[in-house]
Amino acid sequence: MIITRKVLKLLNYRLKCNAGARLMNRRCLQSNSNNDVPSVEVSFSNGRKMTISSGKLARFANGTAVCQMGDTAVMVTAVAKAKPTPGQNFMPLVVDYRLKNAASGRIPMNFMRRELGPSEKEILSARLIDRSLRPLFAKDYRNETQLVCNMLAMDAVHSPDVLAINAASMALSLSDIPWNGPIGAVRVGLSDGEVLINPTRRELQSSQLDLVVSATKQNLVVMLEGKGNVVLMQDLLKAIKQGTREAQFIIHEIERLQKAYGRQKRDVDELPEPQAELVQAVKSMCEMRLREIFQDASHDKISRDTAVNEVRANVIDKVWSSYPDLDPAAIGEEFNNACREIFRELIFESNRRCDGRDYDSLRKINCQVDMYKPLHGSALFQRGQTQVFCTVSLDSPESAMKLDTLAALDSGGLKAKNFMLHYEFPPYATGEVGRIGPLGRRELGHGALAERSLLPTLPNDYPFTVRLTSEVLESNGSSSMASVCGGSLALMDAGVPITAPAAGVAIGLVTKYENNDTKHLQDYRILTDILGIEDYMGDMDMKVAGTRKGFTAIQADLKIPGIPLKVVMESLQKATDAKSKILDIMGETIREPRKYRKDCWPVSENLVVEPHQRSQLIGPSGLHMKRIYLETGTTLTPSDDSNFTVFAPSQAAMDEAKEMIEGYMHKERVPDLEFGGIYTATITELRDTGVMVILYPGMPPALLHNSQLDQRKIAHPSALGLEVGQEIQVKYFGRDPVSGFMRLSRKVLQGPAVGIARSLNKAASGETSS
């Protein structure tokens, strides 16, 4: 009994110590402003701070976190169903990201005055969060999971998308949802060779780089997404390394909060292990035939898929006849596993890929420009079995896409986009039947990546709005990077003065590792210019675009929980080498923007109109400008008080519009009036305020005010005996700078003679007749 009491006392003492330690840990983590809310403060190397808290809002969710930097705060909730959906063979993760006007003190300007469907920016941010989190979910996890990103407050300084990634990481870490996090995400900028961590929107406007780095423990990179203004490779590598190191601060603080407040993770409903006999039967029946198919370089996408599907159908039929109790879907799933394993093994064994290339070789590339004469610019880019048709349309600045308030705020104050790239992926591009309807998230993401890749090469002062369409006609891997190559060719064919041609390439990765430890890879192979099947069977899809000098865009998606920095650096080097080879091939077709004009190219000129002539050009209710547009397609846009931008769809239309403008302005042809000159004026009307006079035929009457009629003060012109048709002498003092009206005076001529009066009747009539 004595030993038992001692043991009980010892256990009781340890429990009290552990409880006290947990209490002290919680107090260290609690916010100074609210002791009931656990929170952590992340300090970055540049002194900026980020606060992540949980436990106060939306407590019915499995996990909730609020991330705040400056006055921008984002709440993310994580909710997962208790049981997986029967028959689900993928991880159903949904991320909803909405930019709310109320968070920035604004009202939506649509008809309903409320938030409607997700915008392009919201969809791209949701994809950014999804790609950062998805690789760290358990392989067998099939429960439907939803992350909702709610903007609580938003200032004009910090972007909320990176805060949403970190809040989602915190919410999943504290929840009972099985997730192998946490991760940390930072935005990295580059200014004058100096790396900026989580730069403000103003700093981003002058930054050469805008890169989001998501990383997990041990400096493993999970996701990369960025754009740059032709960033050198060494600067990009430095930014990725620095961003990965800074993300560790976030991970460390989330882990502290997770240890103190995290819920116990629920058990993953592991998929039933297939019978050993089934595994052996499937592999023995398909291995030799699949090896033969994957080593036959004569196969293309269609023939290879057809051959694999024939083997699949044959294996399922034979195995099912031997094991009638098994579900054919289970046999098909086991065949898929064997097919993936064999495909990956062959890459390591033979040092060759399924189409016969080595790891660094490119597919055959063909380029063609100036496809059809009516098009301002066009190009057909073919890389292997990926074919993209690109067209360029040039239009007036009025055709620029106007951004709403929140989109303009997120884009650094940009109110309109004068360069747009629209990506289309019809179902026939993969030989399938499908419905062509609203634009999907994939198309939006690919188009935005290609647009970011080409935007730095366009001039800032280009007078036209540029719309580049990229239609994928055939797809077998990396159609977005083919859009970059084809788009650059089409821009040069349209005569757009780009700074340098741009090209893009996709880099793949196949790895070997054990126990989910991707820090210490047993072996890996980096693949240049991957096929669709290599993307599907592989572990990474890194898309890199840029000019010969540097990078303009990068996007890296992983299927494994992170890769070491060494692999990232090697992949970027492979991409740089491949990019140079592609640019050499493109240069054989067109090397620089087209110099000579096409007949279909639009024309833009500047027209100077004096303020007093604007009404004559515009016409009553804009009648003249409308007539010019309807008859010639030419638009006149006022730039300021005396300048109009004239845009015509062709030179012939511009010439016709000029004739119409000259006709409208012909009545307003005036002789050059000398400032201080004395002229003979004819009275056309008597008014209470003065007399209306003309200096030459066809002139709009000008007012000669009572105060300028005589040195004496008069109330009405009739007091001086003036009549309609009477000629008087006036002195000209130019035009009013605001109204454009003539400034005339008769009073200043009532002293000694100062000059000889001039008559403009003959000169004006002679000029009018000419």
TrEMBL record:
Gene Ontology molecular-function annotations: 3'-5'-RNA exonuclease activity; polyribonucleotide nucleotidyltransferase activity; RNA binding
UniProt-listed PANTHER family: POLYRIBONUCLEOTIDE NUCLEOTIDYLTRANSFERASE, POLYRIBONUCLEOTIDE NUCLEOTIDYLTRANSFERASE 1, MITOCHONDRIAL
GO cellular component: cytosol; mitochondrial degradosome
Domain S1 motif: 676-747
SUPFAM superfamilies with a match to the protein in the record: Eukaryotic type KH-domain (KH-domain type I) (SSF54791), Nucleic acid-binding proteins (SSF50249), Polynucleotide phosphorylase/guanosine pentaphosphate synthase (PNPase/GPSI), domain 3 (SSF46915), Ribonuclease PH domain 2-like (SSF55666), Ribosomal protein S5 domain 2-like (SSF54211)
One Pfam family this sequence matches: PNPase
UniProt protein name: polyribonucleotide nucleotidyltransferase
Lineage, broadest ranks: Eukaryota, Metazoa, Ecdysozoa, Arthropoda, Hexapoda
The family this protein is said to belong to: Belongs to the polyribonucleotide nucleotidyltransferase family.
Domain of life: Eukaryota
An individual GO BP term: mitochondrial RNA 3'-end processing
Enzyme Commission number(s) from the entry: 2.7.7.8
Keyword annotations from UniProtKB, A to Z: Hydrolase, Nucleotidyltransferase, RNA-binding, Transferase
Keyword RNA-binding: yes
Organism encoding this protein: Drosophila mojavensis
